[in-house]
Amino acid sequence: MAAGVANLVASVSQSQHRWSAGLMLLIFLTGCDYYAKPNRPVPERFEAEFLDGGVLDRSVLSGKPWVISIWVPG
Length: 74
Fold this sequence. Notes:
Number of strands: 2
Strand content: 5-15%
Order of helices and strands: HHEEH
Distance between the termini: 44 Å
Structural class: mainly alpha
Number of domains: 1
Mean pLDDT: 76
Largest sheet: 2 strands, antiparallel
Number of helices: 3
Shape: elongated
């Protein structure tokens, strides 16, 4: 089996190796989305509910740094 893999790698040209490596790099880079956007305003229509029934809306978050983590039990 190792000889088969070695023959396969040897049969691929250097330009194909570079093209494949570039394609893999592009896939890896586009798969990572930058999600931390500081100073992003709270949307006009925003409302969330705490597990205990309390409500979190835009007025509570206004002017304060905020982080919202979505978690669903189960």
